[in-house]
Amino acid sequence: MRSTMPAERPGPRAKALLSRAGVLLFYLALWALLARCVDQPLLLPGPLAVLRRLLALLPDPQFALTLLGTLGRTLLAYALGILAAVLLSALCAASRAAQALLSPLLSAIRATPVSSFIVLALVWLSSSRVPVLTGFLMTLPVVQSALTQAIRAIDPKLLEMARLYRFGRRGTLRHVVIPSVTPAFVQSCLAAIGLCWKAVVAAEVIGVPRLAVGSRIYEAKIYLETDALLAWTVTIVLLSVLLEALLRRLMARYMEVRHG
Fold it and tell me: In whole angstroms, what is the distance from residue 201 CA to residue 8 CA?
């Protein structure tokens, strides 16, 4: 006797994964089709050729060290950028004069092309420090702008309540300011990580420091190894996605703990 139980439908998470897998397969097929049409591996190798080159790179001990070098520079630049953004946001929120003084500088940082920062920094710093400075300058204005606006947008009634109940500076900071600015701070940090990662790699391509993904990309370009260039590029994209997903999960966990 056949069961009349309805088939179990995939949940929202399974549907999201299937959807992403479908999109990925579509673009891989499009890439393979374009590579076949071009029929010039030097110009556009296919996905299988790039995958073979990536698998050939994996056993090399220098591969892991190179990834760690770029990841370390990115995390250092990101952490320094966030720290500086928090300090400058507090200063700008407390002083209109500081806001007026720093606003043109931060606007100039936002408007200046990344390549200009890199070339100028190479005049002053060693090639290993330029990526950190570049990532720092990409992170700082994004987080600082969002955080300063969030601080200025705090409901005055909440601040008045904190004053009436005599929370003090520490209590006001803990119970009013931090909960009010946390959503904007989290979103700005998530937006900045991708910019920081790309800026660090771009600086590595120009500065060519030791143990850097950007340096391997530059070498692949010099020696016309397009499959290696794309293999390193795919590695960068995957690491960027994983890093952002990890950061998003940590931020979500922090928000759960704070509101739980």
Answer: 45
What's the token pair of residue 257?
């703990």
pLDDT in tens, 215-224: 999 999 999 8
The DSSP secondary-structure symbol of 174 reads I
Q: Which of 185, 237, 190, 195 minimizes the C-alpha distance to 109?
A: 195
pTM, two decimal places = 0.86
Listing DSSP states for 139-168 in one string gives: HHHHHHHHHHHHHHTS-HHHHHHHHHTT-H
CATH number (domain holding residue 149): 1.10.3720.10
Residues 240-247, mean pLDDT to the nearest whole number: 88
Please indicate, yes or no, if residue 21 is contained in any of the structural domains.
no
The predicted structure's pLDDT at residue 1:
46
Is residue 197 within 8 A of residue 243, CB to CB? The reply is yes
**Cβ neighbours, 10 Å, residue 134:** 27
| Domain around 101 | 67-259
193 assigned to some structural domain: yes
Number of domains in the chain: 1
